[in-house]
Automatic annotation (TrEMBL):
Keywords: Ascorbate biosynthesis, FAD, Flavoprotein, Oxidoreductase, Signal. Its EC number is 1.1.3.8. This is L-gulonolactone oxidase. GO terms for biological process: L-ascorbic acid biosynthetic process. GO terms for cellular component: membrane. Pathway: Cofactor biosynthesis; L-ascorbate biosynthesis. PANTHER family: GULONOLACTONE OXIDASE, L-GULONOLACTONE OXIDASE 3. It catalyses: L-gulono-1,4-lactone + O2 = L-ascorbate + H2O2 + H(+). Its cofactor is FAD. Belongs to the oxygen-dependent FAD-linked oxidoreductase family. It is an enzyme of class 1 (oxidoreductase). It comes from the Eukaryota. Residues 51-233 form the FAD-binding PCMH-type domain.
């Protein structure tokens, strides 16, 4: 047994340690077509309901006028429309236009990705909708400027990034949400016949429409250009402090106030919190470091498959100890290599790591590859059958987050090892975003919590300790009223979401004004926006498509029954037990 545990730990170490000189195969195009039909998928290879999203055709405009013409064609011919970029990292099925397929059109911005204009005098950058975040950052940095906010993952387009509320971490200045740095955009909306069936609408910083348009979920119109505010170039200094989680509920507020870009990663099973001390420093501060976050580096395909095989083994044998071994090894290795920070661009030699904002604010090196390399990829690339997981992201008001932490600790203290399945991914990532004027943004300073966990290959397969993840999920969204991140989460997180946004009705009013025929909406975007619950079918709770109210919503044939939560008693979770009469 000791040898097996050591071998498994070493294997997991190799997953992360072998990436130093590895480059990934390019990510697949999210739109794939044959002679009769086109299908869009997200980067994980599966939507929440695991059903394909198909349409008859896709267009690839290269200019704003071609983009307007595509919208006009769809409007004239009464087609449903959805826009997809070259990345497609949204988890909910927002990009799917219709279940019918034949009455729909995909518009891909993959080739509308070259326009980047820097205004050094007014400190602004304007980019075409399909431009990759990394291309914008590099261009901005070349001009001696910096984009202040960015999501941690750089595999996004500028339009997709703002449309779903992507964010980094900051309570300072304009805050960590990228949309709060938007000072203008162009949006193509349906028009009447005299307007050529579509028109380009310019929305400036003082236009009230901007509050709706900058987090629009793609259902108000088709964004063609985005204008973002900039600052003079600066560097950042980052140090990670691995320490006890004993006072995390008392420390998180002060941490967000003290460090401009700070965050906290919490590993409940290990009773550990990792505080990120992250602040800007002058440009003449020595250092040329980069942030090459471990989870976004390339993995050799064979190793990714091996880790997935190990996870499946632990799940099928209900080996909590195996999951805890993975968690121990991952956390130890993260500590040794600074979680992917590199002092000179190659290796980690110690704290602090200082580098330019453009090299420190976001990462995603697994996206890039020389064409000669075919044996590595992002760990979740669906073509290799590597990691496959859920991502839950809850946004709390700061005052309620204290009690959420206390409740999670109570649940953890019942059996700490039950949290290893979360901790061997990335624990709970705690970030900060500021109050926003965006109608679908946050109305007050907030705390964002992300956590990932195993997803089975088959929808009907229950997961080890899934009741723990479900109780935390329901605790966040229903007991404490957290708001779901629009681009992440399982469907149940969006139940009654409209009641959580003070300006929701104002957003709907703009939607009716700009797209009165609902050309850009679908049953799936309505399900998310209006918080509708899907059909309550057998096994629906296993995938987060419903909250169980009967045993059949779980998997009674495999020993999983619908039970109350252990700490949050109003939760209803699928728990493994010998019979439905037991806890």
């Amino acid at each position: 047994m000791y040898y097996f545990r050591w071998l498994l730990g070493f294997l997991h170490l190799l997953v992360w340690g072998s990436i130093i000189l590895v480059h990934a195969i390019p990510a697949p195009d999210p739109v794939q077509c044959n002679r009769t039909i086109c299908t869009v998928s997200n980067s994980y290879g599966a939507w929440g309901d695991r059903k394909d999203c198909s349409v008859k055709s896709v267009v690839y405009p290269t200019t704003e006028e071609e983009l307007r013409s595509a919208v006009a064609h769809a409007n004239k011919n009464k087609l449903k429309v959805k826009v997809v970029s070259k990345f497609s990292h949204t988890i909910p099925k927002l990009a799917c236009p219709s279940s019918l397929g034949h009455d729909s059109l995909f518009i891909s911005t993959a080739k509308y990705d070259s326009g980047i204009e820097i205004d050094s005098v007014n400190l602004a950058v304007t980019a075409d909708a399909g431009v990759a975040l990394r291309d914008v950052i590099d261009k901005v940095e070349e001009a001696g400027l910096s984009l202040v906010a960015a999501p941690y993952w750089e595999g996004v387009s500028v339009a997709g990034m703002i449309s779903t509320g992507a964010h980094g971490s900051s309570w300072w200045g304009k805050g960590g949400a990228v949309h709060d740095h938007v000072i203008g955009l162009s949006m193509i909306v349906p028009g009447n016949e005299s307007e050529g069936y579509a028109k380009v609408k310019q929305i400036g910083a003082q236009d009230q429409l901007l509050n709706a348009a900058k987090v629009s979920l793609g259902i108000l119109g088709v964004i063609s250009k985005v204008k973002l505010s900039l600052e003079r170039g600066f560097k950042r200094s980052i140090t990670y402090n691995f320490t006890s989680d004993s006072s995390i509920e008392n420390n998180f507020m002060e941490h967000g106030k003290k460090y401009e870009f700070g965050d906290i990663t919490w590993y409940p099973s290990k009773h550990m919190a990792v505080y990120r001390y992250d602040s800007r420093v002058p440009m003449d501060t020595p250092g040329d470091g980069i942030n090459d976050f471990l989870g976004f580096q390339s993995n050799e395909i064979l190793i990714s498959k091996s880790v997935r095989a190990s996870e499946k083994l632990f799940e099928s044998t209900k080996s909590v100890n195996g999951e805890c071994t993975l968690a121990d090894t991952t956390l130890w290795y993260k500590k040794q290599i600074g979680n992917g920070l590199k002092n000179n661009g190659q290796i980690f030699t110690g704290y602090p790591v200082v580098g330019r904002q453009g090299k420190m604010q976001t990462s995603g090196s697994c996206l890039y590859s020389p064409k000669t390399r075919i044996d590595a990829s992002c760990a979740w690339d669906p073509r290799i059958k590597g990691l496959f997981f859920y991502e839950s992201t809850a946004i709390f008001t700061a005052t309620k987050f204290v009690d959420f932490i206390k409740d999670v600790k109570k649940l953890r203290d019942l059996k700490p090892e039950n949290f290893c399945g979360i901790d061997h991914y990335n624990g709970f990532l705690i970030r900060y975003i500021k109050a926003s004027k965006a109608y679908l943004g946050q109305s007050e300073d907030s705390i964002v919590v992300d956590f990932n966990y195993y997803r089975a290959d088959e929808a009907s397969t229950p997961r080890l300790n899934q009741d723990v993840m479900e109780e935390v999920e329901q605790m966040a969204f229903f007991k404490y009223g957290a708001r779901p991140h629009w681009a992440k989460n399982r469907n149940l997180a969006f139940l009654k979401v409209q009641s959580k946004y003070l300006n929701f009705n104002m957003f709907i009013a703009v939607k009716k004004q700009l797209d009165p025929e609902n050309m850009l909406s679908s049953e799936w975007s309505d399900e998310i926006l209006f918080g509708k619950e899907g059909v309550r079918s057998d096994g629906c709770a296993l995938e987060g498509l419903c909250i169980c109210s009967e045993d059949r919503h779980c998997s009674p044939s495999k020993g999983y029954f619908c039970k109350p939560g252990l700490v949050y008693s109003e939760a209803r979770v699928c728990r493994y037990s010998p019979s439905s009469s037991n806890l």
